[in-house]
Write a structure and sequence with these properties.
The protein is mainly alpha-helical and about 190 residues long. It has 10 helices and no strands. It is globular, with a radius of gyration of 17 Å.
Length: about 190
């Protein structure tokens, strides 16, 4: 099961990579701990081969039904994204941010989270609400939105965060997790 407080792991198995990709699709706009529990319930005894399980659900027209059983919410978005991931047969150990972003339901933040949490020394910023708040309140960066931006604005703010991490001599993923944990106690 995904542990949101211990999310960085550069030695994941293929099944763990698949589970993380599914988690990132499901967690959008939701609480990480609750989502991890729902995903664990969704996979059940199939956690050793998540994408194979999803392909079997798709083949039997049961994916949306199964998502409804666990009350995943956003059923169409999640089902399409799960299907894209499972049917793509991309190698999750080598997949790029650009390839992930081409999949339904995966934006810049989720793609960067996946790579940052599974590969050492990648340089991406995961612009979730806690990082945006940090940029606004601590670093006093002007015009930072409250929700994750896209396009040029994402890249602009990503550069600010990466420059800050470099100045602190910190890995961006570890700094992100530290900031996230600090806001969890507020």
């Amino acid at each position: 099961m995904i542990d949101p407080r211990n999310i960085i792991n550069h030695n994941r198995t293929e099944a763990e990579l698949e589970e993380l990709a599914l988690f990132l699709v499901m967690v959008a706009g939701k609480q990480a701990k609750t989502t991890a529990i729902k995903l664990d319930k969704f996979l059940g005894k199939n956690a050793h081969q998540p994408f194979l399980y999803i392909r079997s659900l798709v083949d039997n027209f049961l994916l949306t039904t199964r998502l409804k059983e666990i009350r995943a919410g956003q059923y169409n978005r999640i089902a399409l994204a799960f299907q894209d991931l499972a049917l793509s047969r991309k190698d999750l150990k080598t997949i790029t941010v650009e390839e992930l972003e081409q999949m339904h339901g995966i934006g810049p933040k989720s793609a960067r989270c996946f790579l940052s949490w599974t590969r050492p020394d990648v340089q991406y910023a995961m612009l979730d609400t806690h990082i945006l708040k940090y940029l606004r309140d601590i670093l006093k960066v002007p015009n930072v939105p409250k929700s994750t931006p896209s396009g040029k604005k994402y890249l602009e703010l990503e550069k600010v965060f990466l420059d800050h991490a470099k100045l602190l001599n910190r890995n961006p993923a570890e700094l992100d997790l530290e900031i996230w944990k600090s806001y969890q106690h507020v």
